[in-house]
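Hi F.,

I've been meaning to write this up properly since the lab meeting, where we talked about keeping a consistent format for the predictions we share between groups. The idea is simple: the sequence comes first, exactly as it goes in, then the structure tokens exactly as they come out, then a line or two of notes. No screenshots and no reformatting. I'm using this chain as the first example so we have something concrete to point to.
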Amino acid sequence: MGYHFFKEIKIYTNQIMAITAQDVNKLRQMTGAGMMDCKKALQEADGDFDKAVDILRKQGQKVAAKRADNAVSEGTVVVEISADGTNGKLIALACETEPVSNVEDFKNLAKSILEKAVADDISDKETLLAATLADGRPVSEHIVDLVGKLGEKLEITAYENVTADQVVPYIHSNGKLGVLVAFNGVNGTDVTELGKDVAMQIAAMKPIALDKDEVDAATIEREIEVGKEQARAEGKPEAMLEKISQGKLQKFYKDNTLLNQEFVKDSSLTIRQLLEKTSKGLTVKSFKRVAIGG
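Output, unedited:
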């Protein structure tokens, strides 16, 4: 019993000693995982690199499952506009903490995912997650792998893909807020500078819709009821409540729909008037505002 016990210990010890620093570094280069994680994986796999890689991937899956309900309030927003300016793609890759959002591997993954979206002209988030990167594995697996390495939940919280006569982007200085503005009717006019102004307006003023016709019915109904309750609290006659609430609704449209908002750089103009002043027939087809953590 004693002889066999010590023999097994000796064999186990020799296996551990057989895992060299070069082996650990090789696995680290292959996977990007930490040195200690690579060493443990190689020991568990008896030095088999393929098995060690599988162990590390399973580790990522375990971490992802454990942290699935965690909030992601940090991250990065990246954007790319096509060479002809007619298409824009925006990705928000989120994580749990700010330090992780500044890790190079995190930033590089966001960049790689965006490059894939552009290369394949991917239309939606589900297709993007299933798309394969250079090593033949899908984006979703790469995210799980990095979860195992960084120990935090990672998630693509938004993917936007817009096409128009000209698309203009804006990324806020903190890298956590991005805007795409899609213009039609440019008629040969370069609207890049105007687009930046409109995009910054969207970033700051947070319009909920392009125009009043795009505000959903539930929001309109809620605003009418709020207007009535406010008027009632001020002692206004019941017969006047509907008229007063409609007036408040128009004010809501003015404050919360892009084309009806006052231009922040010149309050004498609405955004609609600014567009018409810039180029007759110029319109905003759509806009996308994506913010991580808010």
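Notes:
Confidence is low (pLDDT under 50) at residues 1-17.
The chain is about 50% helix and 20% strand.

If this format works for you, I'll send the rest the same way.

G.
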